[in-house]
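step: validate -> pass
step: tokenize input -> pass
step: predict -> running
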Amino acid sequence: MSFGKALCAASAIALMSGSAATAESLTIAIVNNGHMINMQKVAEAYTAETGVELNWVSLEEGVLREQVTSDTATGGGQYDIINIGMQEAPIWGAAGWIEPLTFGTDYDVDDILPAMRNGLSHDGTLYAAPFYGESSMVMYRKDLTDAAGVSIADNDSWDNVKAAAAAIHDPDNGVYGACLRGKPGWGDNMAFITTVVNSFGGAWFDKDMKPTLDSAEWNAAINFYVDLLGNYGPPGSEGNSFNEILALYNEGKCGMWIDATIAASFLEVDGVAYAQSPNAGNPVGANWLWAWAMAIPAGSPNAEAAGAFIEWATSKEYVQAVGNHPDFGWGSVPTGQRASTYAIPEFQAAAGFAAAELAAIDGAAPAATDLKPYVGVQFAAIPEFPEVGSAVAQEMAAALSGAKSVEDALAASQDAADSIMREAGYYD
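step: predict -> pass
step: emit ->
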């Protein structure tokens, strides 16, 4: 559902009373990533202390986006708390779909990293609180690169990265040189692909917001991506996104993974090293910026209880609760959201990735530029982007699988994006 259509539906239906819960029960829609799954167990203490029952709806990333968007836009009332990110929060806040958030002074909103706070706000008002934040970086098996006599540097060239992938690629022994997202979705394969395009000097739209997928930069970037993953990636890469690749990496099957910094919390193999994202001459936009955050749908009958839970779940105290939890510990705390986390000695000792993660977040460049005339790194912060990105994602997966040539996939992508943007009224 496009933003405009959904907003019309929301106006027509108005806000239903919903079936979500009573004040003693909250229904929470979360993405099925590791930190969110861990929260279900950590939050048992919250229920014990407050008496508030928590009903969890854990969904795969693409499914979550579809269901939460539809329900929130139409005032469906299924959820008291929803996981959303930087693409949605400012737009939905401006549209009145989600409630503004205000917390007590002990919450210390100024401790939230500026990149995260700004990305989840509209006109200075916070509409979603970051549960964890991330950029992207290279996570590679240094034992394999050392054995092959190759190295990966911060902001390395894509050519050097490809050479390293070729050197460590050993499919006969179950090791693939590069594991990268291929599963279609604007927040799945397109998150990674967009950073590659950015680094090649491309962008989604020009200064008039006309799509530029028929540009030489997009052609070069997608040909590179298809060649790299087609030659040195695991079979069936067009079906892999974050969770699938995390499983492959922890099975020892990935020599290199360029993805969300948050993945480092869950890597279980030895000898992992980190590097800042590669580029092809344009470092701006080579690493993405994102937060999985918590928001309250507008008109929720349980907004007060939902706000209290969000305040707890995104607080300094929550970080301490995970760090001191017998099942998790300091290497498993949610990161990328609060500056204070990076100053905790126990976290510093447990998280070898911390410095690389924080450098990636600090180095992300979401602001509009002459090259990229819109806010956002791996997405464009416009209401129509999910529809555009999802259409292009299918074409990129077809190119990766060999069902289409890169040229045909890009031509179809340009046509689809142009149609959506014209219908939205950006140009005639």
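step: describe -> The chain has 17 helices and ten strands.
step: cleanup -> pass
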